[in-house]
Write a structure and sequence with these properties.
By secondary structure, the chain is of the alpha/beta class. The protein contains nine helices and twelve strands.
């Protein structure tokens, strides 16, 4: 039973695609792999005849070469405006809830229990669960309600990697700030950092890597270059994300694109070091 978790310094940092790539990389190595995200907020779903989960976890399942099931994303929140969301539990529509009700009455009780049960099922059935966090673990106003980052990572006994989008700027400050703001009991779960969407001369970054390690005592595990990917994005930061039909032709297209992504990631991060974390 092994678990690896990718958390980000912000939404849109690259968690989803990195999880998809790592799922494919470890599947190629012979692991039975499954993705997992305890709670996802998205209006874009994979719809089966019997259930509905976030399409991000469905795409990651294609990367893992595993069956798409409700356990991959046990809680899906579909925003409908005015701080309300339609809540799906284990792939089934539950009810519409206001954010206040969800956070204060549901998330730390039934929500965490449901997420933990799905995680336990995946850990039992697979060699490796590659988990995706949500937003940032350093949202200090919401930490007591956060069941998608450090709390579930601790439950899974997962090794955590933080990813940051360097194309936006401020990645070094974001990583240092994230480490400073997460609780001390969770800091030890973090095993290293990955920079995403880099363009330019890598040698320019290396002095920063050394200083970052001096400050945080955590290594940089790799830098993923900025590349164009023909994969659908989540809707949190994208005004008009693509809608995708779940046809065999399109699934094959996604599969091929994940293969390309996995090769890029494998060439730019220390996969051997990540594998050591799982032992």
């Amino acid at each position: 039973m092994r678990s690896l978790m990718i958390q980000g310094t912000s939404s849109g940092a690259g968690k989803t695609i990195l999880v998809a790539a790592l799922c494919r990389i470890f599947s190629d190595k012979g692991y039975r792999v499954a993705p997992f995200k305890s709670q996802n907020m998205s209006n874009f779903a994979y719809i089966d005849s019997n259930f509905e989960i976030s399409r991000a976890q469905a795409i990651q399942a294609i990367g893992s070469r595993c069956k798409i099931t409700p356990d991959l994303n046990p809680i899906l929140l579909k925003p409908v405006g005015n701080y309300n969301s339609v809540v799906y539990l284990n792939g089934k529509k539950y009810k519409k809830m206001h954010a206040k009700e969800y956070y204060e009455k549901f998330v730390n009780n039934d929500g965490f229990r449901i997420a933990s049960k799905s995680l336990k099922t995946l850990q039992k059935d697979f060699d490796l669960v590659v988990m995706e966090g949500a937003g940032s673990p350093a949202e200090i106003n919401l930490q007591k309600y956060d069941i998608a980052n450090m709390r579930i990572a601790q439950k899974a006994k997962a090794s955590v990697i933080l990813i940051s989008d360097i194309d936006r700027g401020g990645s070094f400050a974001s990583l240092v700030g994230t480490m400073a703001l997460i609780e001390k009991k969770y800091q030890k779960l973090v095993n290293g950092f990955i920079f995403n969407k880099f363009r330019g001369d890598l040698d320019v970054l290396r002095p920063g890597f050394r200083k970052l390690k001096t400050i945080t005592k955590k290594p940089v595990l790799g830098t993923i270059p900025l590349v164009d990917l023909d994969l659908p994005e989540e809707d949190s930061l994208n005004v008009k994300p693509k809608k995708i039909p779940w046809t065999k032709k399109n699934i094959l297209k996604i599969d091929n694109e994940i293969d390309r992504l996995a090769q890029i990631v494998k060439s730019n991060i220390a996969v051997k070091d990540i594998e050591k974390m799982l032992r």
